[in-house]
Inverse folding.
């Protein structure tokens, strides 16, 4: 039963895994904690010309130029309220360092495979290949994001081209 | 069993470590050999030079033997034998023979490359060269025999076996095993005794003490080795043919080695790491300077002095560190004598190559990337530039053509020139060719503009395609490569007097002299090399142009005017909008760029934007400013080209708009 529920998961994920939970609007999202390098405050960000809207710009992370992606814009959520102090989660993905802007970091949770349900395929903004599933613990629902796929640069370019076509 | 295999693995690892040293030394030896072969005077070879070539071949053979590179060992062995005959005078050198030696060197280089990647080298090359070399040796022997028969002399033995005592100190047990094997290759081991840290072997061999040291040097330091002859045993009987050893009873070696240059080998990545760290230091220092200039505290004077001192120190440190990456242009130039020699022979042209300024230094990454474009230019000069001998004589020029390669520092740049005294570019031919290619060119183009046409894609004026050049893919690639390195290229030429191609390159890519400009609240960096001048335009200077474009009229010149604000769709405060115009020039583009403010000049550390993000049109890289924020560095040529593209794309829509309005 568990096996069929976890089609999207690899075999190695049968062990409990830790997720960093962050907030965007009213929802909670989770990402594999091993991909997280650090959490920082939003600092001076330099805009990049002709970049997709959700690429806020680049920032200086101890001498390394790191692109910053606004997940609110990426997920097509309404823009942020003035009273929210967004933070940047710096992710280390396959030799590439990328920062994502979120409303806030909540906590770190451990999920077993039984606690991860497959994500329903209903959203056109974010196809299910970017989602690793729904994590359920203590009545909370956490949307698990396949951040690696989501922030893949090829994907970014693809989305960019697509977006321009629509406009 | 397990213990054994672990020990074996350790040994293998050690061999790998040694083989790394061997590869780099072998490459140097081959390069040395080639250089000396090319310098060699065929009619009157200098014994010392021949000896040097022989030594190089010999050391190579020894090393190849140690690591079991059989083909390389065999090739060098054959080469060595012939060279030995040449230096003893029994073989007369010819131009063809030198060419064969050079070929052998190339094949050995290929073999070396193959061994480096743990592959077996190409057998065909080996068979070819060993047959050719054996042929020479055979001919030589026959002629020697004939000579001997004529004069009735007995054949002269080149070498006799002798008994040598080889003592090696400071070696551990594992190395001893290796060394024992190695010595066994050289001759017959009479007896061998070893202690914890030393090895003494008696060796019956026809190698000289110098040879043994040369071979062992791949593994050991020269000071560790002592070779002493014992009694000379003349196995052949008859005349005592004394080998080279007796004159040097104990070879303590420092004489056989090339002069100590005091260099160390360091991995490039280590140097780059230091350069990066110095880059960080510069940024931190800029932050500090900014802080102290705003600080109002009582100690600020002292603090300011300290900051200024620190700035000077860091600048010096940066210069020293950058100089570590610098390599002399000789590294590039040294490959051209061979190229010119081979090509000249193939094209039947007599060419004298002159190299000037080989000591001028250039960043390692640039020096490696300049090789291909430069090779192309030299090939072009030889193929299209310099005329065949009869043609030259008919024109009243010296029969031998002259090709000059020069390098010279010029501020923060290096100027590399390829000059030939050949036919020069033919204006009519180029224009004709350009038209046949469908290019829109007018007769009124200046010479310089016509010459630049040869850099356009698919352009070649060679009447027939040779295997040397003429495919028309070359010159545009040359220009593209050089532009990519942040440099530019131009041509001057005079009919029947020759052509000069001039390449201007920055000395390094890591640091850039920049001009900071501001649009709204965004700051961009223009490479200072591309900035010609900046001015505050009066309304009269700005003229309209078709399609809504604007032109800037300055001193009789009409330049395209591009607004950085529109180009990058920058929003923000507009009160100072397009206040200043910067005239920029790069890669053949010259235009005026509108910005709001000039902030000033600053040296910036170039940071890669593609490492974590991707290529952005019109942006070459990024940098970090004194306040810690990121600024983007503009790519002047791309900015213009992209603008043009975009205009072409938008052209139709704006026309539609016009029609509906």
């Amino acid at each position: 039963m568990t096996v069929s529920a976890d089609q999207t998961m690899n075999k190695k994920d049968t062990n409990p895994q830790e997720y960093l939970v962050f907030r965007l609007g009213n929802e909670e999202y989770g990402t594999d904690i091993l991909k997280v390098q650090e959490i920082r405050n939003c600092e001076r960000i330099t805009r990049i010309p002709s970049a997709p809207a959700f690429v806020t710009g680049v920032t200086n992370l101890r001498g390394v130029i790191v692109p910053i992606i606004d997940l609110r814009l990426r997920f097509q959520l309404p823009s942020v309220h003035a009273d929210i102090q967004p933070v940047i989660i710096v992710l280390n993905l396959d030799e590439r360092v990328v920062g994502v802007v979120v409303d806030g970091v909540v906590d770190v949770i451990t999920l077993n495979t039984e606690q991860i349900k497959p994500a329903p395929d209903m959203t056109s903004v974010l196809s299910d290949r970017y989602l690793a599933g729904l994590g359920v613990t203590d009545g909370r629902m956490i949307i698990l994001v396949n951040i690696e796929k989501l922030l893949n640069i090829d994907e970014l370019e693809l989305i960019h081209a697509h977006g321009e076509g629509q406009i | 069993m397990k213990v054994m295999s672990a020990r074996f693995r350790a040994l293998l690892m050690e061999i790998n470590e040694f083989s790394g040293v061997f590869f780099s030394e072998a490459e140097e030896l081959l390069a040395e050999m080639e250089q000396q072969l090319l310098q060699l005077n065929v009619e009157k070879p200098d014994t010392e030079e021949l000896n040097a070539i022989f030594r190089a071949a010999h050391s190579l053979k020894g090393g190849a033997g140690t690591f079991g590179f059989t083909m390389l060992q065999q090739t060098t062995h054959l080469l060595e034998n012939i060279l030995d005959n040449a230096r003893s005078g029994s073989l007369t050198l010819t131009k063809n023979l030198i060419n064969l030696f050079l070929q052998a060197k190339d094949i050995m280089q290929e073999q070396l490359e193959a061994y480096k990647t743990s592959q077996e080298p190409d057998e065909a090359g080996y068979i070819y060269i060993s047959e050719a070399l054996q042929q020479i040796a055979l001919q030589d022997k026959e002629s020697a025999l004939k000579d001997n028969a004529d004069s009735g002399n007995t054949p002269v033995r080149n070498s006799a076996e002798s008994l040598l005592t080889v003592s090696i100190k400071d070696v551990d047990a594992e190395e001893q095993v290796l060394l024992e094997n190695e010595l066994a290759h050289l001759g017959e081991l009479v007896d061998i005794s070893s202690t914890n840290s030393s090895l003494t072997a008696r060796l019956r061999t026809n190698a000289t003490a110098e040879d043994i040291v040369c071979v062992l040097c791949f593994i050991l330091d020269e000071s560790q080795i002592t070779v002493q002859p014992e009694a000379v045993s003349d196995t052949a009987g008859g005349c005592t043919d004394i080998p080279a050893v007796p004159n040097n009873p104990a070879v303590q070696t420092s004489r056989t080695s090339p002069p100590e240059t005091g260099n160390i080998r360091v991995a490039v990545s280590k140097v780059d790491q230091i350069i990066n760290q110095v880059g960080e230091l510069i940024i931190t220092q800029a932050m500090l300077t900014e802080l102290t200039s705003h600080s109002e505290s009582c100690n600020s004077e002292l603090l300011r002095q300290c900051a200024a001192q620190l700035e000077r120190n860091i600048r010096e440190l940066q210069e020293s560190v950058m100089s570590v990456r610098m390599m002399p242009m000789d590294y590039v130039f040294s490959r051209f004598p061979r190229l010119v020699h081979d090509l000249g022979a193939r094209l039947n042209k007599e060419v004298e190559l002159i190299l000037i300024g080989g000591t001028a230094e250039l960043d390692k990454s640039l020096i490696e990337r300049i090789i291909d474009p430069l090779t192309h230019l030299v090939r072009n000069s030889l193929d299209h530039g310099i005329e065949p001998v009869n043609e030259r004589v008919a024109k009243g020029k010296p029969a031998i053509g002259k090709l000059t390669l020069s390098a010279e520092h010029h501020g923060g740049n290096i100027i590399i020139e390829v000059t030939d005294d050949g036919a020069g570019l033919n204006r009519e031919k180029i224009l004709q060719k350009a038209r046949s290619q469908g290019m829109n060119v007018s007769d009124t183009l200046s010479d310089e503009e016509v010459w630049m046409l040869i850099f356009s894609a698919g352009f070649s004026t060679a009447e027939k395609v040779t295997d040397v050049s003429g495919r028309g893919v070359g010159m545009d690639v040359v220009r593209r490569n050089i532009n990519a390195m942040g440099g530019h290229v131009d041509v001057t030429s005079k009919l029947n007097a020759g052509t000069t191609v001039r390449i201007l390159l920055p000395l390094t890519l890591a640091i850039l002299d920049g001009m900071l400009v501001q649009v709204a609240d965004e700051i961009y960096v223009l490479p200072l090399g591309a900035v010609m001048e900046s001015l505050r335009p009066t309304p009269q200077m700005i003229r309209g142009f078709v399609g809504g474009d604007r032109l800037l009229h300055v001193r009789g010149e009409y330049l395209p005017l591009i607004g950085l604000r529109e180009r990058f769709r920058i929003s923000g405060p507009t009160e100072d909008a397009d206040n200043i115009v910067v005239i920029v020039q790069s890669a053949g583009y010259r235009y005026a760029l509108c910005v709001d403010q000039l902030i000033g000049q600053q040296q910036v550390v170039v940071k890669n934007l593609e490492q974590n993000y991707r290529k952005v049109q019109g942006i070459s890289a990024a940098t970090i400013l004194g306040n810690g924020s990121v600024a983007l560095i503009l790519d002047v040529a791309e900015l213009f080209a992209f603008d043009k593209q975009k205009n072409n794309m938008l052209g139709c829509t704006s026309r539609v708009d016009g029609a509906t309005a």
